[in-house]
Amino acid sequence: ISSTVGTTLVRYLGLSTMIFGARFFFALAFDVTRIALLHIHSLSYFFAACQRLEVCMFSSLWLLFRGKKRNVLRRRSDHLKYDHMQLLVGIIM
């Protein structure tokens, strides 16, 4: 940004603050900051979803190692007997 554009921008911001008040300036600064950091916010949601998926997968794998299976309809974990081949297939999947 050249110096003339910068001074013109500061002049218009000062004039709009005088006309609309300080709340307008703070709201404008807040909105510009939110828009500038939108990519970080979306990445945060993406990584949180990946982490939830990973925790769900590890919890089901832990139940599989312990010989249990999650019963979604009754909201509990049922005890099952797995042989070695079923356990291997469950780990691979």
Describe what you observe in this structure.
By secondary structure, the protein is mainly alpha-helical. It has a two-stranded antiparallel ribbon. Helix 1 packs across helix 2. The longest helix is centred in the middle third of the chain and has 28 residues. It is rod-shaped, with a radius of gyration of 28 Å. The protein starts with a helix and ends with a helix. The relative contact order is 0.06. The mean pLDDT is 85.
Distinctive features:
75% helix, 93 residues, two-stranded antiparallel sheet, mainly alpha
Sheet with the most strands, sense and barrel status: 2 strands, antiparallel
- Calculate the terminal CA-CA distance, rounded to whole Å: 55 Å
> Nearest-angstrom radius of gyration?
28 Å
Instruction: Report strand order across the widest sheet.
Output: 1-2
Q: Could you tell me the mean pLDDT?
A: 85
List unreliable stretches of 5+ residues. none
Strand content: 5-15%
* Topology as a string of helices (H) and strands (E): HHHEEH
Q: Using the alpha-carbon principal axes, give the shape.
A: rod-shaped
Beta-strand segment tally: 2
Query: Which structural class should the secondary elements be placed in?
Result: mainly alpha
Helix proportion of residues, in percent?
over 70%
| Quaternary status | single chain
Q: Total number of helical segments?
A: 4
